[in-house]
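Sequence of 3-oxoacyl-ACP reductase (Cellulomonas biazotea).
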Amino acid sequence: MTDTRTALVTGAARGIGAATARRLARDGYRVAVLDLSEEAAEGTAAAIREDGGDAVSVGADVADEDAVTTAVAHVAQTLGPPTVLVNNAGILRDNLLFRMTTADFDDVLRVHLRGAFLMSRAVQAHQVEARWGRVVNLSSTSALGNRGQANYAAAKAGMQGFTKTLAIELGPFGVTVNAVAPGFIETEMTRAVAERVGVPFEELLAAEAKAVPVRRVGQPDDIAAAVSFFASEEASFVSGQVLYVAGGPRG
Ligand code: NAP
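Predicted 3D structure, token representation.
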């Protein structure tokens, strides 16, 4: 039987991806930590190894077809065939529609959607061979619409349709595909939002927390826990779902 204990997490140098990589390592997976640069990814991989886990760092742009092919082959050779994939890499290029450049639109769709497509297509070969697999895609509450995020909302809503379609296509091979849609999570991504709008990060965090029913913003580990559930053996009958992890019912 094929060994199915290798996970690959994209955008895992920091934030939600880093927390997810560390969580999956604690769950017993060998983890490939992929980010734009191998050096950036190495921080997370080293932390996993220090905790007694097994991890490698990989540098690749998830939207670059050749880089993705090379990266997935490298992971299969060094760690084992990846059967768990977390499509987490992402960027923001916020602006109101009338100010949004074509590049802002294309860049966001390129990383989130094309990136998830290329990574999933490369990894499914290993999942189908193993007759087992898990794909977890990062969507967002922004999929429901968010001012200044026409590009990002379209990408994150697109991730949901992508998730449901992959669930249908890959289910017969023992592969489940689900999405986690976070609300406001304290990461470099949201810190950059505060900088862009000229508000101290602590102020933004306090304002966001007030609007959340559980009265706090999310932490990367909140999302990692949801990914861990979808990746688990117990979740084998859960597929094509979107779980909003937002401290309230939005979604
Ligand atoms: P983050 O702190 O900005 O981390 C994202 C990581 O992805 C960075 O290390 C970034 O590398 C990497 N990355 C960007 N483009 C890439 C590419 N083309 N190929 C490979 N790696 C790439 O973001 P985060 O807050 O942890 O968010 C992670 C995911 O959750 C994203 O998909 C995001 O849209 C989603 N999400 C976040 C929130 C939130 O409130 N934070 C809410 C809902 C959904 P560089 O540093 O080199 O750019």
